Amino acid sequence: MGNEREERFCRAGDVVLRTIVGEPFLIVLHAGESKMFSLNGMGLWFWRQLERPAGKRALLEAMLAEYEVGEAEAAAEIDRFLAYLEEKGLAVRARKGEEVTA
Questions:
Q1: Mean pLDDT of 34-51
Q2: Is the Cα dihedral 7, 5, 100, 32 positive or negative?
Q3: Count of alpha carbons within 13 Å of 64, Cβ hemisphere only?
Q4: 87, exposed or middle or buried, with CB in 10 Å at 0-12, 13-18, 19+?
């Protein structure tokens, strides 16, 4: 079903999800550096989707099945959020054949 050459994304290995006072946060565990990112409902959904490496097509199909959103809007949101996660070092691109563990 998916394109063999499609890039897949997964969680960065040094990031954990923690709930603090009922709110979800991603915590970066770099040595000597501490960062926290709060997640809204959609951010938490994305984080859960990236438990295993996933391509944009799989994310799009999952989002369309779970939310009442148009395909173009969903695709734009996926691109935006993946770019944000990569920029912040919270997600990485998995190499072909690589199963990245979080």
A1: 91
A2: negative
A3: 13
A4: exposed
pTM of the model: 0.79
Reading the block at residue 64, the tokens are 């369309």
Q: What is the CA radius of gyration of the chain?
A: 14
Q: Residue 28 belongs to what H/E stretch?
A: strand 23-28
Domains, the chain, with CATH or none: 8-94 (3.90.930)
**Is 90 exceeded by the pLDDT of residue 54?**
yes
pLDDT per residue as tens digits for the range 5-14: 689 999 998 8
| Residue 94 identity | A
